[in-house]
Design brief:
By secondary structure, this protein is mainly beta. Among the domains are: 29-107, Phage tail protein beta-alpha-beta fold (3-Layer(bab) Sandwich), CATH 3.55.50; 228-346, Immunoglobulin-like. It has 4 helices and 18 strands. It has helices spanning 20-23, 40-51, 75-86, 281-289; strands at residues 31-39, 65-73, 89-91, 99-101, 109-112, 115-125, 136-145, 161-169, 196-203, 212-234, 243-246, 249-258, 266-273, 296-302, 305-307, 312-316, 319-329, 337-359. It has a 5-stranded antiparallel β-sheet with strand order 8-10-18-14-15, with no helix packed on it. A hairpin with a 2-residue loop joins strand 5 (109-112) and strand 6 (115-125). The chain is globular. The termini are close together.
């Protein structure tokens, strides 16, 4: 789908919070590179060398000589510019990983440190269900991130939440509020492979004569762990009830046992709890703002091997400062050691993005 070029202005509308690049600075390496009449493949190799990143490149690509002058560019900015200058290299889509030979697309794009946000697709939806039709404009916002960045997938499985601040058509008419639909009825986005994710934004329908979204202001809100601690449980099958103190709360191994129904998986349950009598007012406000259920990170280690479980929270109705989180692990030999990671302190990082001139298919096309 053809999309007009982006007029991008990070911070073009007011949103409190630190500069996104500064906040994520430790999780990406900038590109500074000046080359003249150099084969595009050699340019990419130097970008990969500086950043420690790597992308698969199609064998049938015939690189051209290009000239670049990058100063503290992000990885995705640099790669996109190489694709644009070469003219015959593009990101693979629909399951095609890496870079492929072909004309590069120019979707509206925002660069945020280790992430690349782009408008992947826009569709008009006209329902035939009566009496409550929910016509709408669906915008697919896609994100890629570098291998060195480990986003917190909250809410699962998205790496953060997207808030729509402003959406207008060419005449300045608002496309808000968002359209709420039955998620069991429409296609939904978000389930994603490692390194990318997609949000489905549902705006009010455009008039038939309108063919673009003139302005779309978004805020990406992600959790940023500021103080991570590894909590170790040795011989976890024999360590039920063991409690570890970490900062203002504790982590207790409630249970770790084989599937009682005879399956090969192991069920793991952890309890995170804070004692309100020992909390300072500041610590209590922090735990209320970002509750304990979100302090347990998705990465863990079992016998030294990294795992990425999905934790299911179960709140304690009598104690808002206590939560039980459960998951299932691959079975096999009983584990000798297990390490989970918790964030003793976390902040909510808001990152503003603004897009303009987003093309929408004409009616009937």
């Amino acid at each position: 789908m053809m999309l007009l070029p982006l007029l991008l202005a990070l911070g073009s509308f007011q949103e409190k919070g630190p500069d996104p690049k500064d906040a994520l600075r430790t999780q990406w390496k900038p590109v500074t590179l000046a080359l003249t009449d150099t084969p595009a493949r050699d340019v990419l190799d130097q970008i990969f060398q500086q950043t420690g990143e790597k992308l698969r490149i199609a064998d049938d690509w015939n690189p051209k000589p290009i000239s670049v002058n990058f100063k503290n560019a992000t990885f995705w900015e640099a790669v996109d510019e190489v694709c644009r200058l070469d003219g015959n290299l593009a990101f693979g889509e629909r399951g095609r990983v890496g870079l492929v030979a072909g004309t590069p697309a120019t979707p509206p794009t925002a660069y945020v440190g280790p992430l690349r946000f782009s408008i992947r697709e826009v569709t008009r939806v006209r329902e035939i269900h009566y009496p409550e039709r929910k016509d709408r404009t669906e915008v697919f916002l896609h994100a890629r991130w570098t291998s060195g960045y480990r986003p917190i997938r909250d809410p699962w499985p998205w790496p953060g939440a997207i808030e729509i601040v402003r959406a207008e058509d060419g005449r300045g008419r608002s496309l808000l509020p968002v359209v709420e639909v039955d998620t069991s009825f429409v296609r939904s986005a978000g389930g994603s492979p490692d390194g990318e994710s997609t949000w489905l934004l549902r705006l009010q329908p455009l008039d038939r004569a309108e063919n673009s979204i003139a302005r779309l202001d978004l805020v990406w809100k992600t959790l940023q762990p500021d103080d991570i601690e590894g909590v170790v449980f040795d011989t976890p099958l024999q360590s039920e009830g063991v409690r570890r103190r970490t900062g203002d709360f504790s982590v207790t191994l409630e249970s770790c046992k084989k599937d009682t129904k005879g399956g090969s998986m192991m069920e793991l349950k952890l309890v995170l709890e804070a004692d309100p009598s020992n909390l300072s007012p500041e610590s209590r406000r922090s735990l209320e703002a970002i509750p304990l259920a979100r302090r347990l990170l998705q990465e863990m280690e079992v016998d030294g091997a990294s795992k990425w479980p999905y934790w299911t929270p179960a709140a304690d109705p009598k104690n808002p400062l206590k939560v039980t989180l459960g998951t299932w692990l691959d079975g096999g030999a009983p584990p000798q050691s297990m390490k989970v990671y918790v964030a003793r302190r976390m902040t909510l990082l808001p990152v503003p993005m603004s897009f303009s001139g987003i093309r929408v298919p004409e009616v009937g096309k």
